[in-house]
C-alpha cells in the first residue's frame, strides 16, 4: 500500500488552491482602480459561479468578478476584450448593462454606489502575454483631476493606525470610506477644511477613501495597520 506523506498532502492542497482565483465569486470581487487595466488568466483559475443573469453574458463558462464605485456623473466607460455584465449588487442582483469590447459607455449609475462586473472570457483567445489572458478597465471613476490639482489636499498618515486626517484648501461635498468588497463604512459631510476619520475599530487591510467635490471625485487607497 502506498503511503500518503505530509509533503504529498501539502502539494495536493497547494495545487487545489491554485485552481481557484480570489475573485471567482461576486462576494470576493476585486475593486478596480480608475483607469488601470486589470488582467486575469483563464488558464489559472475561474469557476462557474452561477451568479448573474442567464442571458448575459455566458453563464456556463468560467467567470471572474470586479467592482467599481460610480462617479457623480453617473457615467463610466468600460473596456474589455471579453464579454461582461454589470450588476447593482451581489445578492438579488439586477442586470445594469451587458456588453463586450472597448469603450462601452454605461450611463444612469447612482453616484457613490458600488457596481459589480462579471467578466466571462469567451471564447478563450491568445491575447496579451499568454493564451487565456483577458483584461478589463473602468474609466470615469475620477471625472477630472483638474479640480484636485488646484484644490490641494493631504491625507495622512497612510498607512493609518487609528486616526486619518484630511486637509483641503476648499470644502468637499462629502467624504466616503469603503472596504475592498465595496461596502460603505463611512459617509460624512465635512464642515471645515480639516477632517478626522476614526479607523481604530477597522480591521487591518486596504480601504478606499473617496473625496467628492462639486464637480469631481478622487479615490485614494488607504492601508490600516
Explain this structure to me?
The longest helix is centred in the N-terminal third of the chain and has 13 residues. The strands form 5 sheets. The protein has a 5-stranded mixed beta sheet with strand order 1-3-8-5-6, with no helix packed on it. 8% of the residues lie in helices and 40% in strands. The N terminus is likely disordered. The protein has 225 residues and is mainly β. The termini are far apart. It is globular, with a radius of gyration of 20 Å. It has 2 helices and 18 strands.
List keywords for this structure.
single chain, about 220 residues, mainly beta, 5-stranded mixed β-sheet, 4-stranded antiparallel β-sheet, about 10% helix, about 40% strand, disordered N terminus
Task: Spell out the blueprint of helices and strands.
Layout: H1 6-18, E1 30-31, E2 38-41, E3 64-69, E4 76-80, E5 83-87, E6 95-100, E7 104-106, E8 114-120, E9 126-127, E10 130-131, E11 133-139, H2 146-150, E12 153-156, E13 163-168, E14 174-179, E15 184-188, E16 194-198, E17 205-212, E18 217-224
Parallel strand pairs: 1-3
Antiparallel strand pairs: 2-11, 3-8, 4-7, 4-11, 5-6, 5-8, 9-10, 12-13, 13-16, 14-15, 14-17, 17-18
Number of helices: 2
Q: Outline, from the CA principal axes?
A: globular
Strand content: 35-45%
Q: Termini separation (Å)?
A: 50 Å
* Helical amount: under 10%
Within the largest sheet, what's the order of strands? 1-3-8-5-6
The rounded Rg comes to 20 Å
Chain oligomer state = single chain
| Mean pLDDT level | 75
**How many strands, which pairing sense, and closed or not: the largest β-sheet?**
5 strands, mixed
**Strand-pairing-aware structural class:** mainly beta
Low-confidence stretches: 1-20, 124-131
Number of strands: 18
Which series of helices and strands comes N to C?
A: HEEEEEEEEEEEHEEEEEEE
